[in-house]
Amino acid sequence: MIAAAARYLEAGLCALPALRDQKRPALGRWKQFRQRLPARQELERWFRDADAVCLVTGAVSGHLEMLDFDHGGELFEPWAEAVRRRAPGLLERLVIERSQSGGRHVVYRCESPVGGSMKLAQRAIETPDEKPVTIRGKVHRPRRWGDRWLVIVTLIETRGEGGLFLCAPTPGYEPVQGRLTDLPVLTEDERVTLLDAAWRLNEWTEPAETPRVPCDANGRPGDDFNRRGDVRAVLRRHGWTLVRTGENQYWRRPGKDSGWSATLRDRVFYVFSSNAPPFEMNRAYSPFAVYALLEHGGDFAAAAAALRAEGFGDDGGAGRVDITAVAGTPPPDEPPSPPAVDPGPLPEELLRVPGFAGEVMDYCLDTAPYPNPVMAFCGALSLLAFLTGRRVRDSGDNRTNIYLLGLAHSAAGKDWPRKVNTRIVHAAGLAECLGDKFASGEGIEDALFVNPCMLFQTDEIDGLLQSINKARDARHENIMNTLLTMYSAANSVFPMRRRAGRPSPGVIDQPHLVIFGTAIPNHYYEALSERMLTNGFFARMVILESGPRSRGQEPRISELPPRVVETARWWADFRPGPGNLQDWHPVPAVVEATDEARQVLVETREQAEVEYARAEADGDAVGTTVWGRVSEQVRKFALLYAVSENHRAPRIAVAAARWASRFVLHQARRMLFMAATHVAENPFHAECLKVIQKLREAPDRALPHSVLLKRMKIEAKHFLEIIETLVQRGDVEVIEAATGGRPRRAYRLLEG
For a disulfide at 103, which of 73, 326, 419, 540, Cβ 3.0-4.6 Å? Predict the structure, then answer.
C-alpha cells in the first residue's frame, strides 16, 4: 500500500490512508490536505499498517475529478455509449476503475478548476410511507413530495474540489482501463461532453418553485410568463452568457471567464454554481422565478404586477392566487429563507496581486519561519494601502483605506508579515506612521492629527472586541465609533473633538487609517456581537482565514528586495496636487478605469444591489449591512490592484476589476456564512450552532447519536431538546445508520 501511495504522490496526487468501511480518511485532521500534498515522510508513517488508500480531488491533485457511477454502475454503459457517439476516442483516454460495490469510477484531470461535487443523475423511488428503506445496502429515509413519499437516490455524481474517493489497491477496487498515475488532462469542452452525457440520464429534478403571489388584477401573469416569456433575454440583460446551445443549454454567470454555471432545459433553469447570486447552488428555477429574482430583487408581487403591465396573464379568475411551481407541487405560503451558503476558503489564485504587493508577499513567504500565504497577502495589501493613502483615488473618490483581518491559530505565522511591513516602512522613512494598539478613540484621533496617514498593526483583535462588548464605560465604545467614522472620512475632513473651555484644536484633512489585524478564528467569532454585525464594523472589515499551519523552514537573514524598498520610497516621496499645501491638503491623483473595467464594476454593483434587496425583504439586518458595502469595497480593491501593478502610471484595467469583484463577493459570502455559523442570539442558539458545526465537519455531514452527544459535552435531556429544535427547523434530519447489528440512530445536516 505504501508503494502505491508513493507512486500517487510522485504523480502529483494527494493520497491519504482511508477507512474502507466508512469511505473516509483515517486521519483526524485531513482537511489541510485539500490545500497541500503530504510529505514522503508522512506517507511512510501513515501507510505502515493501512489497508486502504483514497485520493483527494480538486486543485491539490492537479484539478482532479472523478465520475462516480453508483447502484452497481447500471448507467455506466448507457453513458459510455453516449460519450462514444459524441466524442470518438475520448472514452478510451479515461482511467476507469471498478468499485467495491460493483460501480465504476471514471477519473481524469482538467485544464481548469473543477468546482465542487455535483449530483448529475438521480432517480425517485416511491415508498408506501415514511419508514426507512434499504436500497442496495444503504438505508434511506423517505421525504414527502406532494402526496407521495419518495427516496431520491443518486446514480451518477462527481467528486470535485474538496472531495475524495477510495481507489486501488484498496481491496475491492480494481483497474479496468488506464492507470491513475498517468491521467489524461481534459479540455473544458471534453469535460462538458462527459458531464452532459450523465445529465441526460437524469430521471429526477427537484421541482422549480416560486412563492404564492396574490394578484391585484385578474389572471396569472407568472404562469403565463412560464409558458411564453423570454427567460434567455432576462439572463442576458443581467450579464449571463450562453456558452452552448442545444436542447440542454449551458449558461455562464457574470464575472466568470470560462466554463458554465447553469443549464436551461425544458424552461427550467438549474444552477450548479455556488457563486451566482441571487440564485442558490443545486436549485431549479422557473422562468418567472428567474425574472422576479433578477428584475425585481425577489419581490414576486412586484414582478407579477410588472408582467401584468407587459400583457402577461388573462382576464379570468379575478382574485386568484398566482402559483408558479413547475411540477405542480404547491409551494409553501412563506418559504423559509435559504441558509447562508459556505463558498469555502478563498481560492488560491485570488491571493495574488501583480507588482509591488506580490513582491512583498513573495519575500515574506520566502523568509518566514512558517510561511502563511493568507497572512502574507494581508500584510502586503495593508502595506500598499498605507503607502498610497492620501495619494491616489478613483474617479468616484474611493480611497485605499482598508481594514484587513487575518485569522490564524497561534504560532501559525501571524507576526512575520507585521515584522516585514515594519522593516519596509522604516526603510521608506515613515516609521512615525506606525501604530500597534488602540488605547482609546481619542488616542486614534490624536495619532491621525499628527500623522493623517497611519498603519495600525494589531494582534489579537478579538480581545479588543471582547473589551468593547464588556466595557461599562464609554472608553472602549468610543474606539469602535472612531473606527467607523474614520473609515468613512477618508475623502473628507474630520473635526477634532472640542474640550470644554479650550479653543477648537482643528481638523484632520482626509484621515487615512489602515488596519492590519490578526486574531485566532474561534476567539474572533465568539467576540462578535449582533450589534457589531449590524452597526457597520463587521461590513468594513475584510476577513481572511488561513488554513492549517504550513511546514516550517529554516530561518535566514535576508535583505529587503531593492525594488520593494525603491517602490516604497517612491510612494513616500510622491506628492500629488499643486501648490505648497500638499502635505496638509493633498489632491490625490485620479486613477481612471477602462470602459471594460467600468462595466465589470457596474455589474458587480447591480449584483450587490440584488443581494441587498433580498436581505432587506427578509429583514436580514446583517445581510443589508454587508451587501451595502460591497460595491465600495470592490472599487477600493480594484484601485489597489492597479497601483500595485504599475505605481508610476496606474490604470484600473479589466483584470483589476474582475479580481476585485471575485475577491470581495467571495469574502462577503464567507463572512455572512461564518457570522451565521458562530454568532448566537442567546445561549440556546449557541448550542444549536455548535451542533450544526460538528455535523458540518463530520464525514457525510452525519454522526451517530452517541458520538454527537459525547462531542457536545452536555446533558442528554438538553441535547435532545436541541436536536428536536433543529429537526423542526429543517436543519437536521434523524436517520438510521446501518451497522452489523441493529441500526443506530444518527443525525444528518440538511442545510448547505
Answer: 73
CATH number of 213-322: 3.90.580.10
Cell readout for 376 is: 502574507
Q: Which fold has domain 348-498+507-678?
A: Rossmann fold (3.40.50)
Cell of 177: 482501463
3-state SS, one letter per residue, for 426-440: HHCCCHHHEECCCCC
The contacts of residue 677 (CB under 8 Å, 6+ apart) are 340, 525, 689, 692, 693, 696
Domain ranges of the chain: 2-199, 213-322, 348-498+507-678, 683-749
Give pLDDT tens digits for 650-703. 999 999 999 999 999 999 988 888 777 766 666 677 788 888 888 887 887 889
Given the candidates 1.10.10.10, 3.40.30.10, 3.50.50.60, 1.25.40.10, the CATH classification of the domain at 683-749 is 1.10.10.10
Phi, psi of 733 (to 5 degrees): -120, 150
User: What's the count of helices (H) and strands (E) in the chain, helices before strands?
Assistant: 25, 33
3-class DSSP assignment, residue 645: helix
CB neighbours (10 Å) of residue 283?
16
676: nearest Cα among 665, 689, 667:
689
CB contact set of 22 (below 8 Å; sequence gap of 6+): 699
Give the helix/strand (H/E) hosting 154. strand 148-159
pLDDT in the model for residue 689? 81
